[in-house]
Amino acid sequence: MKKPPPITDSEWSIMKVLWKKQPLTSTQIATQTKSHPQTIKTFLSRLVKKKAIGYEKTGRSFYYRTLFSEKECQRHESRSFLNRVFGGSLRPMISHLVEDESLSQREIQELKALLNKTSRGGKE
Amino acid sequence: MKKPPPITDSEWSIMKVLWKKQPLTSTQIATQTKSHPQTIKTFLSRLVKKKAIGYEKTGRSFYYRTLFSEKECQRHESRSFLNRVFGGSLRPMISHLVEDESLSQREIQELKALLNKTSRGGKE
DNA sequence: ATACATAGTCTACAACCGTAGACATAAAGC
DNA sequence: GCTTTATGTCTACGGTTGTAGACTATGTAT
Question: Which of A3, B70, B83, B97 is the residue whose CA sits 20 to 30 A from A76?
């Protein structure tokens, strides 16, 4: 499976819209994001060029569609973020987040449950 | 407390070196990072200009020093990353990381311990 | 004092990013 | 068939980023 290309901030906002509902035309995206249509078109071209999205032409309309799942892209971004800010190691990052951003009791319970579930899958 | 300015990838690598040992001269940093000295100097100027670091001139040498702790910067970066990629919510992100990046048994244990400790401090 | 070395400042430059105008093309309605 | 309208493509432009050469100023050694 190919890995997703780098996606900039503004491009992410477009990807997000598409992940919610696909496929969409440039006009539909512009309406939803309340952005200048021309700007959206530029971002769409760039995303197409870097093969983050594709499109099908049906009659007069171009329908855009992502070529990667949100999860794939999140995974990828997390990786590079991790490398940049936390030197690549996950644990310090999670520690930091957990310590720093106060989580509610409920969230903590959920995370613990998650960790229990993962226990079986984790590699030793 | 002022918030840290945006720091680019390359600049992070300099900050990292400084956080490990401060203060340092540009030459020392260039040596450690094995980068072209001129490039380091540029980054240092930019970091000074955006007030991420400061320096003291002692005799012939300029000693650079960070103006923010690593934790502060990590916090800041985590925030913007979170907003961009996970729509600002922490839990999905941690879930994603925990599910996706396989953690060792040991790491899982450590995280659980961390969560227990945090229980008391977390807000309800 | 004079020359050498060191370290900051100015300048540059290509690539990328956010933003968007101008232009072309093609479908659709009249 | 011709005009309107929608939609992609080309071009642009200022700002940032990574990279680094050239110039300058100032200690340092002789």
Answer: B70
> Which amino acid is residue A30, in one-letter code?
A
> Do B52 and B67 meet the contact criterion of CB atoms below 8 Å apart?
yes
Q: With beta carbons under 8 A apart, name residues in chain A contacting B76.
A: none
CATH of B1-87, one of 3.30.200.20, 1.10.10.10, 3.40.190.10, 1.20.120.530: 1.10.10.10
> Which chain A residues have a beta carbon less than 8 Å from that of B69?
none
Determine the CATH number of domain A9-66: 1.10.10.10
| pLDDT tens track for B18-55 | 999 999 999 999 999 989 999 999 999 999 999 999 99
Sign of torsion over alpha carbons B76, B77, B82, B85: positive
Nearest by Cα to A41 from A53, A52, A29 = A29
Q: Where are the domains of chain B?
A: 1-87, 89-124
Quote the Cα angle for B118-B122-B124, to 5°: 145
Chain centre to alpha carbon of residue B84: 18
Residue-level pLDDT at B93: 80
Residues (pLDDT < 50) of chain A are 121-124
